[in-house]
Amino acid sequence: MRAQALAAVIIAAAIVVPSTDPAPAQAAEQSASNSSCNSTAAKGNHPPVASLKATPSKLGVSAARTVTLTASATDPDGDELSYSYTYSGGRMRDQGPTTVWDLSGVQPGTYTATAFIADGKGCYASPRIDVEIGD
């Protein structure tokens, strides 16, 4: 079943960060995701196909700590999608397909953001991305 979930959801991760570091920003790609339909989903309903982008995946300690996350998703059934996020540090400024993840003030380490993309009919996708802060 895990292989089916991975096949059903395409994930990428990228973060756009204004940086004081001289090195260019690097994009990361993640393919770990979860997609499913709960027991109340309409028969024949399918989960969204989603990706999450963030650039760069690594930030220097002195780098700006604002990251733009972009969730891209389509629904095979044409259902309208809603977006929300969970995260392990910092704060999100918005809850739409594009949001700013503010990691100002967090300690060096690895932080995870997960987008929860729901079709309103019991199916969802939840791509995630890790961002590392350190030297």
Q: Can you walk through the features of this model?
A:
The structure is a single chain. Helices cover 5% and strands 38% of the residues. The protein is mainly beta. It has one domain: Immunoglobulins (Immunoglobulin-like, Sandwich), CATH 2.60.40.10. Strand 6 and strand 7 form a beta hairpin. The strands form two sheets. Strands 1, 3, 5, 8, 9 and 10 form a six-stranded mixed β-sheet that branches. The chain has a four-stranded antiparallel β-sheet with strand order 2-4-7-6, with no helix packed on it.
List the helices and strands and how they pair.
Elements: H1 2-8, E1 35-37, E2 49-53, E3 58-59, E4 66-74, E5 82-87, E6 91-92, E7 98-102, E8 109-118, E9 123-125, E10 128-133
Defining key terms:
mainly beta, six-stranded mixed β-sheet, 1 helix, 135 residues, Immunoglobulin-like, four-stranded antiparallel β-sheet
Number of strands: 10
Largest sheet: 6 strands, mixed
In the CATH scheme, the class would be Mainly Beta
* Tally of helical runs: 1
| Main structural class | mainly beta
Give the percentage of residues in beta strands.
Answer: 35-45%
Low-confidence stretches: 1-25
Rounded to an integer in angstroms, the radius of gyration calculated over CA atoms is 16 Å
